C-alpha cells in the first residue's frame, strides 16, 4: 500500500509536466503518423514496425509516431491480426485515436498489408480526428483470392487459415473469427461475397452506398497506394492498386478505373482521382520489401 502511494506521489510532478494538451510546437511542426502493421506482425517488432518507427523518427525530427497495438501486448496484437473481428478492431482503433491528445489536429496514416485496408476503414468510419494522408503499403483494397504464402511461411497457422477459407470463407463463424476471411473476395461467388463479407464488402460499398463512407474518404488530402511488382503473398497483386479479378472468373483482372465501383463512383474514388488525390506507386520487390532509399524518395515527401 505504502509502495503504491509513494509511487503515485513520485509520479505526480512528472505527470504535471508531461500532461495536458500537446501543442504543435512540441512536435517541431510535424504531422503525427499512425501506423498499422500487417498479418503475422505486431506493433513493436524491432525488425519491422519498430524499425520503421525508428527510421521515421530519424528522418523527420520531432515526429510523433503511433504504432498501433490491438490488444494488451505484442502477442495478443499478433494473434488479433489473425483471429479478431476486423470491425471490432477498427472500432477499438477509432476510440484509441479519438482519445489521443497528440492527434487532435489531425494525423497521417500508413498501413502495411492488411493494416492498410483496416486504416481505410478508419478513414471512412471515423472522421475525427481527421486523417490527412493515407499511405497503403501493399494493402489489399479489393481483398484476396488465394493466400499463396504467409509471412515467415513456417507457421502452421497459414495452413489452418487456408483450410478454413476453403471450407467456407463466407460462413458466419469463419467471417467472425478469421481476419483473412473478412477480406476474402471470391470472384466465382460474387453474390456470396457481397451478401456475407462482413468487412470488405461493407467498406467497399458492395451492398449499399453509404454516403458517409463516401464523404469521409474524400476528406483525405491524398490516398497513396504502393504495389510490389514481385509480390508473392498477395493474390491478385492488382488489389494493391484497388483492382481485382473480373467477376465470374479467376483469370482476367480489371483496374480500379475499369470497375463498377469507380464507374458508378460508389466510394468517391473517381472524384478523388479527378482531384489528383490518388497516387499509384509501384516498386520492385516482394511483399513489403523496400529499401530505405526508395522509402525516403517516394513516401517521405507525403509525411513531412
Ligand atoms: C526540428 O526540425 C529541424 C528541421 O528539420 C531540425 O533541424 C531540428 O533538429 C528539429 N528539432 C527537434 C527538436 O527535433
Ligand atoms: C454508414 O456508416 C456510418 C459510419 O460508420 C454508420 O454509422 C451507418 O450506420 C452506416 N449506414 C449504413 C446504411 O450502413
TrEMBL record:
<keyword id="KW-1015">Disulfide bond</keyword>
<feature type="signal peptide">
    <location>
        <begin position="1"/>
        <end position="19"/>
    </location>
</feature>
<dbReference type="GO" id="GO:0008474">
    <property type="term" value="F:palmitoyl-(protein) hydrolase activity"/>
</dbReference>
<comment type="similarity">
    <text>Belongs to the palmitoyl-protein thioesterase family.</text>
</comment>
<keyword id="KW-0325">Glycoprotein</keyword>
<protein>
    <recommendedName>
        <fullName>Palmitoyl-protein thioesterase 1</fullName>
        <ecNumber>3.1.2.2</ecNumber>
        <ecNumber>3.1.2.22</ecNumber>
    </recommendedName>
</protein>
<dbReference type="InterPro" id="IPR029058">
    <property type="entry name" value="AB_hydrolase_fold"/>
</dbReference>
<dbReference type="GO" id="GO:0005783">
    <property type="term" value="C:endoplasmic reticulum"/>
</dbReference>
<dbReference type="GO" id="GO:0006898">
    <property type="term" value="P:receptor-mediated endocytosis"/>
</dbReference>
<keyword id="KW-0964">Secreted</keyword>
<keyword id="KW-0732">Signal</keyword>
<dbReference type="GO" id="GO:0005794">
    <property type="term" value="C:Golgi apparatus"/>
</dbReference>
<keyword id="KW-0333">Golgi apparatus</keyword>
<keyword id="KW-0378">Hydrolase</keyword>
<dbReference type="Pfam" id="PF02089">
    <property type="entry name" value="Palm_thioest"/>
</dbReference>
<keyword id="KW-0256">Endoplasmic reticulum</keyword>
<dbReference type="GO" id="GO:0005576">
    <property type="term" value="C:extracellular region"/>
</dbReference>
<dbReference type="GO" id="GO:0005764">
    <property type="term" value="C:lysosome"/>
</dbReference>
<keyword id="KW-0458">Lysosome</keyword>
<dbReference type="InterPro" id="IPR002472">
    <property type="entry name" value="Palm_thioest"/>
</dbReference>
Amino acid at each position: 500500500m505504502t509502495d503504491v502511494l509513494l509511487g503515485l506521489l513520485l509520479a505526480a510532478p512528472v505527470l504535471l509536466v508531461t500532461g495536458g494538451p500537446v501543442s504543435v510546437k512540441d512536435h517541431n511542426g510535424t504531422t503525427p503518423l499512425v501506423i498499422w502493421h500487417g498479418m503475422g506482425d505486431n506493433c513493436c517488432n524491432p525488425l519491422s514496425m519498430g524499425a520503421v518507427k525508428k527510421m521515421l523518427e530519424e528522418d523527420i525530427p520531432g515526429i510523433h509516431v503511433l504504432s498501433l497495438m490491438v490488444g494488451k501486448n505484442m502477442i495478443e496484437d499478433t494473434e488479433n491480426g489473425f483471429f479478431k473481428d476486423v470491425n471490432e478492431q477498427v472500432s477499438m482503433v477509432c476510440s484509441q485515436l479519438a482519445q489521443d491528445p497528440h492527434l487532435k489536429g489531425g494525423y497521417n496514416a500508413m498501413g502495411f498489408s492488411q493494416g492498410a485496408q483496416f486504416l481505410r476503414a478508419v478513414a471512412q468510419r471515423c472522421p475525427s480526428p481527421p486523417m490527412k494522408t493515407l499511405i497503403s503499403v501493399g494493402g489489399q483494397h479489393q481483398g484476396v483470392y488465394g493466400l499463396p504464402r504467409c509471412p515467415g511461411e513456417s507457421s502452421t497457422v497459414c495452413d489452418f487459415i487456408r483450410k478454413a477459407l476453403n471450407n467456407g470463407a463466407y460462413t458466419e463463424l469463419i467471417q467472425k473469427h478469421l481476419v483473412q476471411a473478412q477480406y476474402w473476395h471470391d470472384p466465382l461467388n460474387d453474390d456470396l461475397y457481397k451478401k456475407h463479407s462482413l468487412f470488405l464488402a461493407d467498406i467497399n460499398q458492395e451492398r449499399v452506398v453509404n454516403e458517409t463512407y463516401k464523404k469521409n474518404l474524400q476528406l483525405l488530402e491524398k490516398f497513396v497506394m504502393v504495389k510490389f511488382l514481385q509480390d508473392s503473398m498477395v493474390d491478385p497483386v492488382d488489389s494493391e492498386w484497388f483492382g481485382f479479378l473480373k467477376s465470374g472468373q479467376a483469370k482476367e483482372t480489371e483496374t480500379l478505373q475499369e470497375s463498377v465501383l469507380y464507374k458508378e463512383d460508389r466510394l468517391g474514388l473517381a472524384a478523388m482521382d479527378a482531384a489528383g488525390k490518388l497516387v499509384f506507386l509501384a516498386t520492385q520487390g516482394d511483399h513489403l520489401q523496400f529499401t530505405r532509399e526508395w522509402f525516403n524518395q517516394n513516401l517521405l515527401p507525403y509525411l513531412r
